[in-house]
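Researcher: Structure prediction, please.
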Amino acid sequence: MRVLGLGGSHHDFCAALVENGEVRSAVEEERLTRVKIAFGLGPRLQRCLAADYVLSAAGVDLADIDLVVANDFINPVYTLRHRDRVTWMGHHLAHAASTFYTSPFERAAVLVMDGRGSKVTRDGEPYGETITSYASGPEGMTVVHGQQGRVTLTDQRSEDPYEDSVGWMYEAVSKAIGFFTSGGMGAPGKTMGLAPYGTPRYVEELGTTYALVDGEFRQSTTQQIALRAMVEKELRKAGTTAARDEVRADFAYAVQEHTERIVLTLARQLHERTGLTDLCLAGGVALNSVANYKLLEQTPFERIHIVPAAGDQGTGLGAALYGYYTLGGHAWQPSAQPFSPYLGREYGAADLSAALTEEAGRLSVERPDDLYGRVASELAAGAIVGWFQGRSEIGPRALGNRSILADPRAADMKDRINAKVKHREPFRPFAPIVLADRQKEYFTTDVPAPYMLLVPRVREDKQRVIPAVTHVDGTARLQTVLPQLNPRLAELLTAFDRLTGVPVLLNTSFNDNEEPIVETPRDAIRCFLNTEIDLLVLGDLVVRKVVQP
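Model: Predicted structure follows.
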């Protein structure tokens, strides 16, 4: 049985193909259109490039597909080409399926938290999903508790906020302190990165803009207005640029603090309702990796799984898996192997050669006998390396196949990459990648973190060893590297460890600021030439820039 899943909402459109329970391919529309989160594409959205991509990657045609599934909160323009075949499902259900059916758990509690989801009508007024929890097992997924928030504007646009939405609160503060994407969406990832630079100055005041009642998050329209007004007032009062920056950092601190409190409360309530000890997370709030780690520290849940495409870019994956397991009537049985996020298409030697030929006069290419030793020595000498390997990873975080890598021991490396490559705010942190069997030497947890969605502390004695990936508060957004998931990245880390005694590298996504992660060899070469990346590795090839006369 083959199932094509289409996903997204009014942003983060995506597609996935599941065949006999195996995820054959998945990709986000942004990787193909080169428009960040595929927001504002207009009529171009109906091209639905991601669907063609996943079919081609698996070597099948649309005629070979048994079922097409999409969530009912998606912009319908994206499904126009497939409208006669689409089976619809709920938005939060697609999130839940994306994380449970990629987990190692036979049974688990599932918590979905985002800005907004499928619309419903109550007493003649529009509402939508904001927080939904499930108990899941071989027999399927059952709703344990659901919250719906009232739409707080009257024109009912797809981006209108809902009441009682944790995701909306975090994004509202992000926008109010000036963090937007190029398309006008909020940029909560920046807020999470800024939060450790702040103080508790606004924690108490921000707490007056919502309530936790019987384990539910409540925030009315009046409180939403008060929240935005609070931030705007404090920014106006700040007389200097430095004072405004302090206000922004302090509000980032406050909204992060309250989001953690809310998520912990919701998780504890879910544990009480289900008695389950394994937890799966999805929805945009599940990308808050700081809060995720605290769930392990401060709730009764013993194990946690977050799908790497936890935002709307994972709902196509969830739709395809739901189509196979629930609509297709197949019983769930977890795999003994960890879920692989590397689901893009494979680019062969001919693809690499064609892309390199287009820029032949600007590039030199070699194939070293010892690729890993050569790249490790370049990294140890201070080079910033674009690392392009195999199939691209799903989700907003680069996991080692479309990555920029660097030496974490260099104290100035964070500033170098932010200024010269990523062209972004200097406070933005970078993530460490570490060999899984060496994790405990450097970090305060041995919990696997293959998808860069947990933030533990860096051990005190190692913070000076890897300063480029140690955040200002002594934490790091960790990725553990398993040879069975990414053997080439593990080989490189091993080579770097042999050379330096440190089995850790700095890892960030292979892209420039406000650009999607590179997908093709051409994308990688373009980014390499337009930034101050020193070295590009395409498969087994080492590529350098030719100095122009």
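Model: The two ends are 58 Å apart (CA to CA).
Researcher: Thanks, that helps.
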